[in-house]
Structure formats: structure tokens, C-alpha cells
Amino acid sequence: MKGLIGKKVGMTQLFDDSGKAIPVTVIKAGPCYVTQVRTVEKDGYSAVQLGFEETKTQRLTGGELGHLKKNDLPPLKYLKEFRTDEEVEEGQALTVEVFAEGERVDVVGKSKGRGFAGVVKRYGFSGGPKTHGQSDRHRAPGSIGAGSTPGRVFKGKRMPGRMGNDTVTAQNLEISRIDPENNIIAVRGSVPGPKNGLVVIKEARKQ
């Protein structure tokens, strides 16, 4: 089954045979344990639930511990579900070797939260003119709508507000390097989220 949970380590660079530098993001992925297998007959859909990163017993509820003990698994901090028809067994461990170098993957993570931001930072607005008597409109959005018609602001109007902390998918990233001994995957390009941020690696949907 081609799916893993991991944590973003950071960015570095690799060099190809011609000496060209390739920017890569290093992800510590797995080992992930199959904590539950969902079937069409029993649950109405096919999926596999994976668990990642051991934690202290005290940090989990009794229900969570019972769910994991059913398959003699250690206390796991993160559980994620992957829609798939692949046949795997509960309790099975999945490592970075489910992927191969050169394969394409999608990486899902949560972008860094930037807090409340104005339209210049949030959407790249140019702001108002810097001259002709302008005093305090340098980073303002300008008009947000007409007068009596329609007499309101349209839904979806780009305005100041909370920026970041959204689920983002980086699509079609190439796997540049795999290190099974250290559970490391290096993917070409950037990945959403901060260092140590949780990410999900899946087989690319748009090959």
C-alpha cells in the first residue's frame, strides 16, 4: 500500500551525476503500523488506517489503547486513514520501502499559520498609490463594491483575515532519495508546513 505518515525534517540539496544541485525536502516517514482495515462489506468503503510515532501510554484514552492493543501494537500518537483496495493485514508494519526512487508522490501538510494579515501580504495586492496626496492608503485594498446596487459585499471578496494554517497538498513531487535504515525520504521541491510538521505521503493522483 503506497501511503505513509511522516514528519518534515527540513530542506537541503542533493547533486545529480552532472553536478547540478537539486533542492529537496527531507521527511522522516514511518515505520507506520496498520491499525485497522475497513472493508466494503463491514464499513461500506475500503480503507486502511495507519498509526505513526510511539508515545506514552498516559497520553492516550482507554478506547485508543484498546484499539491498538487488539493487534498488539504500541501506543501510537497519530492515526490516519487511506482510501485503498490494497490487501494488508492488521498489525503489519510499513516502511519507506513501499516507495521507490523516481516515483511521484503527493505530500499533504498544514501550512504555517501567519495570523491576521492584510490584503498585500495575503493576496499580493499592490496597495494604493505612493503619491498624489495619499497618506494612509498604501496597503489598503481599495473599493470593496459598488453603492446602492448591489448594496452589499459579494461573498468570497478578498479581504484581510487569517492567513495560513490550512491543509495544503504539494502535488506530483519526485522522490530523489530513499534511506530505509533511517526511515528517510527526500522529495524534490518544497513541502507545506514547519519543521517537525506532520505530513502524509501518498501516491500521486496526477501522474
List the main descriptive attributes of the protein structure presented here.
Elongation Factor Tu (Ef-tu), domain 3; 12 strands; extended; mainly beta; 41% strand; 207 residues
Detailed description of the structure:
The chain has 207 residues and is mainly beta. It has a single domain, classed as Translation factors (Elongation Factor Tu (Ef-tu), domain 3). The chain is 8% helix and 41% strand. The two termini are 17 Å apart. 20% of the residues are buried. The mean pLDDT is 93.
CATH class: Mainly Beta
Order of helices and strands: EEEHEHEEEEHEEEE
Distance between the amino and carboxyl termini: 17 Å
Tally the helices: what do you get? 3
CATH superfamily: Translation factors
Give a summary of the structure in a few sentences.
The chain is mainly beta and 207 residues long. It is built from three helices and twelve strands. The radius of gyration is 23 Å and the shape is extended.
Topology:
Elements: E1 3-15, E2 21-29, E3 32-38, H1 40-43, E4 47-54, H2 62-69, E5 76-83, E6 93-94, E7 104-110, E8 115-117, H3 119-123, E9 161-163, E10 167-179, E11 184-188, E12 198-203
Antiparallel strand pairs: 1-2, 1-12, 2-11, 3-4, 3-6, 4-5, 7-10, 7-12, 8-9, 10-11
